[in-house]
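Task: complex structure prediction.
Instruction: return structure tokens for all chains below.
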Amino acid sequence: MNNTFNFKRFSWIFRKTILERPVQILGIIILNFILVLLLYSFMREIIGWDATQNLTFLWGFVFGGCYLSAAVFNYFSTNANGSSYLTLPCSALEKWVCAILIAGVLYTISFLLFFKAMDAAFVSYYHQLLDPKEVNYLSKMEAVQPFDLNGHVAKTTYRMYGVLVSAMMVGSLYFNKLSFIKTGLIICLVFGLLFVVNLGVANIFFNDVNDAFPFSHVSLHLPSAGVVQESNILIRPMNEEAGIELPQPYQSIFKVFIQYVLAAMLCVTAYIRLREKEF
Amino acid sequence: MITINHLSFRYSMKRELYKDLSLSLRTGSIYGLLGKNGAGKSTLLKIMCGLLFPSSGAVTVNGHSPKKRQPSFLQTIYLIPEEVYVPAITVKKYISLFSVFYPLFSEKDFYEYLELLEVNETGKLNTLSFGQQKKFVIAFALACHTRVLILDEPTNGLDIPSKVRFRKLIASVMNEDRLIVISTHQIRDLENLIDHIVIVDEGKLLMSASLDKIADELIFKTVESMPEAEIYYAEESFLGTSVVTKNSFKEHTKVNLEHLFNAVTVHPEITELFSTSYSATHE
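Output:
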């Protein structure tokens, strides 16, 4: 018998995971879709199309994914449930792949399809409502476009998703109860700490730091005209800002690290933790 | 067969629960695992199932290392914890989702056991009472026909008729290829069921002996006046004084598990009487 991975056993655990708690797994997905739909419907009038698209994509994808990834290993809140899960005749690898498939792949595909369809429907409806005889018809038409799933916001969201979902998975294997909240707090704490340390380091090297994002950029208040008196030329208006960004190769390294290496490290940690989990 | 060699286990650095515990449980027997609250009975059962890992020492169950939690091992062992888990699905759905993992599962036997234990099959499992849920899990576990069956406080939550049916059922499914370990506080629920007693206390194995051996070495009876033989345990009762004494004249009395437990915990030196079987099980 193959004790590491058997496709038949994997199909059983996958089926069991989905159908044993359909409300918890499918319910989270559907509830999240409804929330995204409602947010999208109501926020456009308040914050505009672009911001609504960005917000709902970020919220729906990352928050829904995180909640789902915390749910796929949510067996350890009771002794009976945890014992039943760990003693189920399946390898740790099969259980782990099942969780990755649900939270990482299936949710991603279903959310992207849902968001694409919803966004296209809303945008198309908006375009239909526009009057072609209107003077600024074209500019209004161009101002509202479907959300670009390959755009900057989408790519940043994918990066966040990879890291946060894997972190949630690890957290749900470390914390038996309220894992979603506890892991969320730890993520916020780590990020806050990184941000403060990064800002502190940036302040050591530069004056007038506006903000600094860990491993990404430092934004500075540029010297105003009053400060550049030596040349006696006003080269910039007051309060202008400029960013110091990592050189391109390093920025790529950072992006690859966040999107792939860090996410992969966290996923592997989840597997090791599951294999070594005592309950 | 379950073999535990020089097992040490600790939950934290400060508190060591088991230290150098060795024990051997043979296939074809029903073992009763007894101990005071916090003695580590559930911990020992969890170690046997691979839910907890020893700090040192080795545990093997039918040649498998439980710690690895390999599917080939897990499909030969079933743990029924004190609190059972049933999802919000029907009996049929439960069978279709869970039975596939156990190659020897028999649906026919399962429904027989459900009927014997008088479990209501209609509706979702989570709507059943705690006792019904427990009986459902017991029926499922028995129908899986695993070589090792581990039950932690199985009679907790069962009504009196169900306890009787549970005993009958366990006795009926027992065979030479099976090993059953039952941990309980309710010692009377094990009477006429187990054939071997294991008592743990303060992280140590106090005794491991067959009921036959115990009956050979000790007498359990109620007397009006105290006998001259060395008394290991005495308890006043309505009918007289129940005593546990040494069986010097090879009388045969029924083993009173409760009195035995009290006698052994108060006078651990009694276990020396079973040293033959004790050493035999350690070989």
